[in-house]
User: Fold this.
Amino acid sequence: MTDKSIYQFTVSCMNGEERKLIDYKDKVLLIVNIASECGFTPQLKDLEDLRNEFSSDTFNILAFPSNDFGGQEPLEGESIISFCEINYDTHFDVFQKIRVRGQYAHPLYKFLANKKENGRVGAAPRWNFHKYLINREGEVVDFFYPFTKPNSGRIKKQVIKLLKNKLL
Assistant:
């Protein structure tokens, strides 16, 4: 594990338990900040479709609710997971609500947004549904703005490469 890996971080599950991101070692990940009242919220279905398309033990989506943009995540706790499951039939991991930009951003998101720290990407989320693609070694390899749908050819092509263990 290097300091250029997300595996150095721990995040909080909705039930309050802590999860070490090293638990996702050897998996390709798409990390997304979500919100229930955003114009991009229908992407939750696209995220679930992507998860299903690559349903295996080697691909996961990690969703982090955030209220950083226009107060578009008013829900708290388990009601966020219920919203996602009831409205979009999601089955990917949804963690506790966090800050994703600015001075009070969660350490994971500070790392994801800072090229000096992650070695590859220098892009903080500008809105909800900003996506970071992580390789099997826990390294950030790319990011996608909110308007890039999860089931876009651009994302799928890179996920396939990473699942085949090819470096980008």
